[in-house]
């Protein structure tokens, strides 16, 4: 029992150290690296460790089979981890780009998304009269009452049905979002069953060419244009809100998007809403609204990525342990000779650890490179908070690659520790006699 609890405490301590290591900021890791480099250069023990490390690295070609187990195992961990996190990062980046601080969205009080919000038609003129909203040259407020209807389309990938957001926008919807540009065809004409589609929707779903007709709500709709928003709107179909509503027997709107008059506009609008009992509505900048829409899925992906990475990391640690134990056993005579020449325990431990960390670093770089080559910019779609597909691209950022490298070095640290301690405790006389 005593040995069991001692082993359990050791494992928990190593896991704690590994988690702390992974959470360290880059400047802390850089400080540790500089401190180790100075020790290797400026002290006698460090110089001995450096020479012992050179001998170990020089022998890697003769032990490449065992060493490749470490490199490939860690590359797999880092590749999967970075790919998973890149999916969450890409989804978050897409929704973050959708909103900004110059526009705001109004929903029914207590609603978390457009799907469960209702704004009656008699409330829209009241909203348009509120302060804090930009007026166009003709004096009309830049206000877009909108509907969001989920429709079924066919995926290009597997031919299955997927949910897609069919958005009805008001006449000012284009002016409120000037970043949205028509790249093919034209805008829809008000009052007609015409659709413009996002560029992302065109790439992910079938029958999305300009001129084709879609049967939605038992009616024929004509695709007249393609727009590019470079945000989550790229996943949507757009039409006139006054046409979409009657087609789906919707008497009310779900949200109202407005253009704000500078930084003070949001405060003025929020205060005006609070003081008007006829408007029981919540307001948020579109940056905050779409940022919250990404929180749940991003957290889930990060948790899943970390759990899967941790499970794979355990396998990689055992692979590193086996490989390094075999390397230490195969180099028993060499290590014993070094000990006999005056290399004490610390230089020997450091040499084995540095060798393992070098292999781990190679595996980390390889895994991050594979993740970047295969997944960076890869386009997929997933369900968002409105129960419709959001098209986005994987984003392998330098921060994610750095996280993967820290995981790799952490695995190397744990995987090389026990073989290094064994090498330092190797009895000199027995090792030389056995050799």
TrEMBL record:
Matches recorded under InterPro entries: ABC3_permease_C, MacB_PCD, Macrolide_Exporter_MacB
Determine the domain of life of the protein's source: Bacteria
Protein name per Swiss-Prot or TrEMBL: ABC transporter permease
Q: Where is the MacB-like periplasmic core domain?
A: 69-274
Which membrane topology term applies here?
Multi-pass membrane protein
A Pfam family of the record is MacB_PCD
> Domain ABC3 transporter permease C-terminal spans what residues?
307-427
Q: Where are the transmembrane segments?
A: 25-43, 64-87, 303-328, 348-375, 407-424
């Amino acid at each position: 029992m005593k040995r069991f609890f001692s082993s359990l405490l050791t494992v928990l301590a190593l896991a704690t150290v590994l988690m702390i290591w992974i959470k360290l900021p880059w400047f802390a890791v850089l400080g540790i690296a500089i401190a180790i480099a100075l020790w290797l250069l400026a002290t006698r023990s460090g110089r001995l460790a450096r020479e012992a490390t050179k001998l170990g690295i020089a022998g890697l070609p003769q032990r490449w089979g065992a060493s490749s187990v470490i490199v490939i195992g860690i590359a797999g961990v880092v590749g999967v981890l970075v790919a998973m996190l890149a999916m969450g990062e890409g989804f978050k980046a897409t929704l973050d780009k959708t909103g900004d601080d110059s526009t705001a969205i109004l929903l029914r009080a207590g609603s978390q998304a457009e799907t469960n919000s209702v704004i009656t038609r008699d409330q829209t003129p009241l909203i348009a009269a509120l302060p804090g909203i930009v007026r166009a040259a003709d004096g009309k407020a830049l206000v877009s009452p909108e509907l969001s209807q989920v429709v079924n389309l066919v995926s290009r990938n597997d031919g299955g049905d997927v949910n897609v957001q069919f958005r009805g926008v008001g006449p000012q919807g284009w002016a409120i979002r000037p970043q949205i540009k028509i790249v093919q065809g034209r805008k829809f004409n008000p009052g007609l069953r015409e659709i413009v589609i996002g560029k992302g929707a065109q790439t992910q779903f079938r029958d999305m060419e300009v001129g084709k007709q879609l049967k939605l709500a038992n009616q024929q709709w004509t695709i007249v244009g393609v727009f590019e928003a470079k945000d989550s709107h790229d996943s949507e179909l757009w039409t006139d809100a006054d046409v979409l509503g009657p087609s789906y027997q919707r008497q009310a709107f779900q949200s109202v998007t407005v253009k704000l008059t500078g930084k003070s506009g949001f405060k003025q609008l929020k205060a005006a809403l609070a003081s008007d009992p006829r408007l029981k509505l919540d307001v948020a900048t579109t940056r905050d609204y779409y940022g919250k829409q990404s929180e749940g899925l991003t957290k889930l992906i990060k948790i899943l990525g970390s759990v899967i990475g941790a499970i794979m990391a355990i396998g990689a640690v055992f692979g590193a342990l086996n490989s390094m134990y075999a390397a230490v056993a195969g180099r028993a005579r060499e290590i014993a000779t070094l000990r006999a020449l005056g290399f004490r325990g610390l230089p020997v431990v450091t040499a084995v650890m540095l060798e393992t960390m070098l292999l781990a670093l190679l595996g980390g770089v390889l895994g991050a490179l594979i993740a970047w080559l295969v997944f960076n910019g890869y386009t997929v779609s997933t369900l968002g908070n409105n129960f419709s597909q959001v098209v986005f691209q994987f984003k392998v950022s330098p921060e994610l690659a750095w996280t993967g490298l820290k995981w790799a070095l952490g695995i190397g640290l744990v995987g090389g520790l026990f073989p290094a301690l064994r090498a330092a405790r190797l009895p000199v006389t027995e090792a030389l006699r056995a050799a």
